[in-house]
Amino acid sequence: MIKRLEKDGLACVSARELYDFLCFDGSHWRRWYRKYIIRNVFVSEGIDWSWRVPVVWGCRNEDFYISIPFAINLSKLEKTGMGDILSDYLNSFETGVVIPKFLPPE
Asked: Is 41 in contact with 56 (CB distance < 8 Å)?
């Protein structure tokens, strides 16, 4: 599942992890984040999302911190059911209620 992150004291998730979890085609990542994050007129940089540039194997990877409410909305883009599962999981971050089906195996 997607890891919960903290950015400036606010709960958020990685846009790249959300994208990968939803099983979108990896070759469309750049087009997807430009359309749904950067050029999205309904969200604001610094409030709903901010840049995150981790270095992996010496290479910079473009990624974003996205707020939990924004991540829930993005997860609903996926129409096969994974989006619904992810939406429920992300809602548990906001409410603080851990949904049993998302507990790690013992």
From this structure: no
